[in-house]
Design a protein that fits this description.
mainly alpha, 3 helices, 35% helix
Length: 80
């Protein structure tokens, strides 16, 4: 229920189509394992498994604009 609720909030916070529900569930699960939880006092669920704090500097807002990078060997001349 928690993941489903997080998924609904993420899809409704941005005008995103419902077909992205799988990506939203995956993102919610990934985030849930890297934020502190009241049952595991003062640490994240990620820490007992890896013995280190999770790196959250790469977190972005779900649905934010991004750019896809095409490797140089796959690019053709005169393409953006």
């Amino acid at each position: 229920m928690t993941l489903k609720g997080m998924m609904k909030c993420m899809l409704h916070a941005r005008p995103l189509p419902p077909k992205l529900w799988v990506k939203a569930i995956n993102y919610a699960y990934y985030n849930q394992k890297r934020i502190p939880h009241k049952l595991v006092k003062g640490i994240t669920p990620f820490e007992p498994l890896t013995w280190r704090k999770p790196n959250v500097t790469h977190f972005r807002v779900f649905g934010s604009c991004t750019w896809a990078r095409t490797p140089f060997d796959k690019k053709k001349d005169m393409e953006p």
